[in-house]
Amino acid sequence: LEWRNSPTRRLYVPRSRLAPAPARPPSVPSPSIPLGAAVTSSHIRFSSPLFFSLIFDHRMAKRSRKKKQRMPTLSDDLIVESLCRVPYRSLCRFKCVSRSWLALCSDPDIRKKSPQTLSGFFCYARDRDDGCCSGLLLCSGWKSSCSGFDDYVVCNPATQKWTVLPDTGEQPNVVHTFCLGFDPSMPSRFYVFLFVRDSSRDLGRVKIYSSETGAWISRQHEWGDSIRLKDDVVPVFFNGTLYAVTSGLSLITVDTEGTTWRKIRMPHRSLRTRFEEVEVFIAHSQGRLYATHIDFHEDNVLSVWQFEADGNEQWSLKHTASITRLLGRRKNGYNEYYQVISAHPERNLILLTGGMGDELLAFDLDNQEVRAICTLEKYFQAPMLPYIPCFAEWPSDGR
């Protein structure tokens, strides 16, 4: 059976498939159908399943042709722009769709723009001058004159390229603090913050290096007197602002231009009445800043605060849970303690280390569950710096 593209859309069928015409009254003559003649729908009984099947198939085919005609086609540029916004892990899955998608998703230009997620950690940092921010590393090295850690390099492990920073102009033997600032959404530039200390170890000035200008700018900070950084808290950079914690348990911020300075009270200050030394950690996840604290005296109770940057600059307590109880056991004296090392950038997960077996743990804030990821090496040392690969091109020395 087939349809012919004639104006009347007649149907040609074999004689053996035709149903016999019903008996008609004498007044209405029965139509004669010669063998091989063109047959219209009037020759087929309306109760015949063949008739309804043919009509249904015809209408569906007609609708399908209309849908195909209305379906807009995307240009290659729009498809590439859409795929560039897909996480890299999903991009790898799309390669299994077809050969054309395999070739398209394997394009290195798409991979460079594709957003990445947490891939691992850098451990055993040799010096506090070393640092990691998203996909870049800040490293210090010896000059040939052996005058100290004078050479500072920002490198990208994913592309194996690096940039040597120009001389800071500071005395080589004075201990200062360097912080790296890099935002994967703007991969064409990075920043380095240098906290210059005076003879009393208080902060005096802040120098900021921009990869766009290739030079340092110096600013006198506006945080007040007697400002010292809390050395065991790794600063955080996102949305063009660097966040650090002082020894007085205040959050200090500065932008990349050195024009906006803020000093905010940390929620941990209320804990000083109970503890002489307060464990502090800050991290950013899903565009928000978080602060954490673990109470070692009370079954390792983890508290998580979120910074409400709505103009009031207040902290709000979001989660409280005992890590020991969630693991289904009782605290084993002071030998069992935990330390927050990171927050997942895309999920409500807090990553911790510690316990009796030196494990790496993941705490799901939504489900209030803790699970072990792996066992760390025997002589593991903090900090663990989260690493998010970045394949985008950025200014370098070409090496």
UniProtKB/TrEMBL annotation:
One Pfam match: b-prop_At3g26010-like
Task: Please report the stretch or stretches of sequence annotated as the F-box domain.
Answer: 74-114
| Source taxon at top rank | Eukaryota
Family annotation (Gene3D superfamilies) = Kelch-type beta propeller
Q: Which NCBIfam families match?
A: F_box_assoc_1
What name goes with this protein?
Answer: F-box domain-containing protein
Classification from the root reads:
Eukaryota, Viridiplantae, Streptophyta, Embryophyta, Tracheophyta
